[in-house]
Amino acid sequence: MTYMYPTYIPISATESLSSSKYGLYLYHEGWKKIDFNEHLKQLSGVPILFIPGNGGSYKQVRSLAAESDRAYQGGPPERMLYQEASLMFEEGVEMDETDIPIISQYTRRLDWFAVDLEGEHSAMDGQILEEHTEYVVYAIHRILDQYKESRNARVKEGAVESGSLPNSVILVGHSMGGFVARAAVVHPNLRKSAIETVLTLSTPHQSPPVALQPSLGHYYEYINKEWRKGYEVQTSRTGAHSSSHQLSRVIVVSISGGGNDYQVRSKLESVDGIVPSTHGFMISSMGMKNVWLSMEHQVILWCNQLVVQVSHTLLSLIDPETGHPISGTRKRLAVLTKMLHSGMPGSFSRQSDLLQQSPHLRLQKQRRFAGSQKKTITACPSQLHWSDEGLERDLYIKTPTVTILAMDGRRRWLDIKELGSNGRNNFVLVTNLLPCYGVRLHLWPEKGTSASDLPLSKRVIEVTSKIAQISSGPAPRQIEPGSQTEQPPPSAVFWLDAKDMHGFRFLTISVAPSPTVSGRPPPAASMAVGQFFNPEEGRKEFSPQSLLLSMYSQKDIFIKEDHPIAMNITFSISLGLLPATVSLQTTGCGIKKSGLPVEEAGDMDNGRLCKLRCFPPVALAWDATSGVHIYPNLYSHTIEVDSSPALWSSAQGSEQTNVLLLVDPHCSYKTSAAVSLTAAGRRFILLYASQIIGFSFAVVFFALMRQANAWELDLPVPSLLSAVESNLRMPLPFLLLAISPLLIALFYSCLSPKPFPSVTSFFVVSIICYLIGNGTIIILTLTTQIISHVVARVHVFFKTRWRWWILDLSTSFFSFKVMRVINANPSLAMSLLAIALVCFVHPALGLLILLLSHVLCCHNALCSFFTASSKARSEDLFGFGNGVKSSKSNNDENEEGLPVDENSSGTPDSARSYGETQLEIFHHRHGLLILHLLSLLMFLPSFVAWLERLSMGHNFPWLLDSVLCMGVILHGICDSKPEFNVFFQIPGMRGYEIRQGLVYLLAGYCCYLSGLDLAPYKAFYAMAAVGIVSFVFRIIERRNQPYYSSRKHSHRH
Question: At the top level of its lineage, which domain of life is listed (predicted)?
């Protein structure tokens, strides 16, 4: 939490934008009242613009701005001597750390500006995003002009100015504000080099969190395409490559909130494929230096650990010589990497890379420069150098495990050749001692003399810099001198593999002497446990079967004493899909070997004694997308990584999770993993909601295909529920509709640069999503069908009881001239009204009109069916015939208040055939109703955002949304009757026809693939295409082309 005293200074708008509904503010920290004009006149810092996200406020800048002010006044934080992040780029070019300036005081403060976007919901509408982008571009220009105006005002007052004006603004965006920042970078009206650094917090870069509106998805695709083009290397006529591409100076850093951010997933926040690794990266808050926390979507704006680290990072970007942000791209990226990344990796490819990035780089560099005049990179400053005289007598360790329980001022020698034999070629050390201050580690080629001409001090390499920091809780304090406390949690990890130790004979661990103040002991306990071990001995695996069965019964894994300190546990199903609660219970800690008196050990509780002997376990989980997740004091904790496995775009290996347990080798444990069904279900819906939405459209299209095929074959049209159930039958329908699109997707992955997913997990998860989509449509169908039947029953009941009274009212209502015109051709009136609303008001209103027409038709058809059925039962009950009288009675009934819709097909020959015909009409229109109801729901968020903006003016809808919705409306009109099932005779191929069922099948495949692509809005392209094709067929059919024909549906009773 941050305490602040905010003041928001409005920045006046220019004449061209005096009537804008948005605003621009400058933040000032302080409780004293200030003069706004005088404060603006003194403006001379580094400009930073904060852009709020979906429904956000400009006042959300206060935590970042307040901590930045405190960081500027307090100066850089104390340097931590843990392992730094690797500065090696993918191209193999390394950024030398000596090029990064080490400053003792920041040279210039940060001026935080914020745009007031009226709290609009930019995640719901693409048009809002575009308007926000245009205003942000204006705000950037206005900020740069304000610095010029402030400087001119100071010069007029006689002030002497030195230095140059800022020519760029750093952008910090939260949520959709981060995407707006990127959109502003490629805006055609932006000044050259006005934006060079973009930092985003919980921003979806790849696609919207839920891509429902077509214009929103299209705008995302357009911006990302412009960014990819901006980083393309241009080739000159001579064939030489030019590096002066459009975005060559722009760096983007994306910070994700991790697994606790349920609104935006880390996969969407990644900049892979948009920004090259030489110009940006994505980092999770759990892997950030000095943060180590996962946080919710809004919490990322005020979490103190993250806000403080971001503030120091932005201040470190300022060049001490110029007072402006560092101009060099590579140097700027190196500062961002060093300030944000911890020494822990975000990804790894082999066991020895678990705890380090570029593990041999630093050692090889030091060996290369050993004995030369060039300064080597060492972790420990010269003033912290320990002399051999400052250490007590050396200790020679004869066992693979070394334990340090106090700062005793001794150096421990470990023989690598002897202790690292029998496959124990890895060494790991966990400790809570600070590197250089508390512990130092060296590699020695030999201990005595050597044939080398170099002195021993030149051949010994210090590897203290390889100690990586991990999150931990506070160490327990001693109650009284000499008392034994619980083992403190480790705060650092040191790892060496066989390649690191090659060519060396000894490893030494030097511990600093115990500090004393007035004869008192140190305030906290100290610990360090190291071990030579074989990584293969510590491998455990939870199979898919055991994880699924753990929902009902847990499987325990027992770890005996003298086990490897690092246990590599593999979960065959990703913990991003099935979060598991990992429990670690201490079962023994060598009480007999503890050294305590027997009577004391017997009276002491086993668990309490083990806490005095065993350090708290630590779990480290990695994910290729979200990076490292650290869980200290792991006794029982739910491990959940923010991964996205089994997607079309998922890479190989994403379907499983590796967890490294650091446990005390002196103790034995019982570990178990249990999967919660509710947590797994919540995570599944969170990951695959977009996929399920796209599959739901495909399910409806497949059901419409079965209805169309039944009409073509002169069979009764099945209900939507029956059609969905038929499509789930094995083997042919299910394999054709559910498996074939997956094979098409895999085939496309083979031909494209997209990563090839893991086939098994991809198929299993996709089939589950398809079944959930079927279940969603079944529930929606049952709900609407029950409501329709209830309303129709009530309507028929009142019609038959008060038919003349209602008939008089309906006759007087339909006597109006307007109603007579509409009643003469309701489809034309409905289509004109719907298209007008789609083009000039909002697409959701036009789709609502289309939906109401379906509801009315379904209601009329169902009422006619119930009326005909009750009449037929009445005649059979009293022994009346089924001849002409029955037909006349039905016609009279329709004339008395139950008019048959204009979409009715033909005149029935009997009461039974008439009723069944009306039921088939209901089934057909009910399928269209469900399809277009889904379409309306897709536009519902955009409609809500439109309603909120009505008071601020009205803008016409995007052309793309209007065109696609017009195609949907054409589909609802042109295919409103079952007999509108045309057949297209392929010219030159007698006997081959393109039927409507085939069109629905292809549309369903397109929706299926759009779901796999996490872009359900692309289902509108399929619906619009079907509508346009149907409209063209209707026109050609009216012209009586010879190769078109229609078939009349007839019953066979």
Answer: Eukaryota
Q: How far apart are CA 737 and CA 1009, in angstroms?
A: 12
Measured CA to CA, the distance from residue 902 to residue 830 in angstroms comes to: 13
* Nearest partner of 1052 among 913, 910, 864, 861, judged by Cα: 913
Q: How far apart are CA 829 and CA 856, in angstroms?
A: 14
The pLDDT assigned to 949 comes to 83
Phi, psi angles (nearest 5°) of residue 397: -85, 130
User: Which amino acid is located at 909 in the chain?
Assistant: D
Nearest to residue 473, comparing CAs of 528, 524, 403?
A: 524
Do the Cβ atoms of 217 and 211 come closer than 8 Å? yes
- The predicted pLDDT at position 462 comes to 87
Residue 964 CA to residue 853 CA, distance in Å, equals 19
The β-bridge relationship of strands 566-571 and 539-542 is parallel
Nearest to 810 by CA among 903, 896, 900: 896
pLDDT at 10 over 90: yes
Torsion 543-545-548-550 (CA) sign: negative
- Other beta carbons within 10 angstroms of residue 732's beta carbon come to 8
> Where would I find the beta strands (DSSP E) of 466-549?
468-469, 492-496, 506-511, 528-533, 539-542
Prediction pTM value: 0.88
**Residue 565 tokens, joined:** 């300190």
The span from the CA of 1022 to the CA of 1003, in Å, is 5
Confidence of residue 961 (pLDDT cuts 50, 70, 90): very high
Name the residue with tokens 């919705």. Answer: 965
Average pLDDT, the chain: 81
| Per-residue tokens: 704 | 């419409």
Phi (first) and psi of residue 80, to 5 degrees = -95, 135
Peptide bond into 731 cis (omega under 30): yes
**pLDDT for the residue numbered 933:** 96
> Which amino acid, one-letter code, is at 1050?
S
Closest residue by Cα to residue 205 from 231, 179, 172 = 179
Asked if 919 contacts 861 with a C-beta cutoff of 8 angstroms, the reply is: yes
Position 384 scores a pLDDT of: 67
- Confidence label for 97 from pLDDT (cuts 50, 70 and 90): low
What's 301's DSSP letter? Answer: G
Report which of residues 1036 and 741 the model is more confident about.
741
C-alpha distances in Å from residue 422, one per residue of 482, 568, 764: 39, 19, 42
Structure-model confidence comparison of residues 652 and 573, the more confident one: 573
Structure-token match 């008089």, residue found: 808
DSSP structural state of residue 625: T
Nearest in space to 432 (alpha carbons), one of 662, 679, 626, 615: 615
Amino acid, single-letter form, for residue 346? G
Q: Determine contact, residues 411/508, Cβ cutoff 8 Å.
A: yes
Inter-residue contact 914 to 889 (CB < 8 Å): no
Query: pLDDT at position 392, please?
Result: 63
Q: Both ends of the chain: CA-CA distance in Å?
A: 76
How far apart CA 286 and CA 290 sit, in angstroms, is 9
Q: Which residue has the tokens 């699924």?
A: 548
676: pLDDT strictly greater than 70: yes
Q: Where are the beta strands (DSSP E) in 123-278?
A: 170-174, 197-201, 234-235, 241-242, 251-256
- pLDDT tens digits along 836-887: 999 999 999 999 999 999 999 999 899 888 888 776 666 554 444 444 444 4
Closest CA to 904 of 826, 821, 788, 818: 826
Distance between CA atoms of 345 and 86, rounded to whole angstroms? Answer: 9
Query: How far is C-alpha 601 from the chain's CA centre?
Result: 52
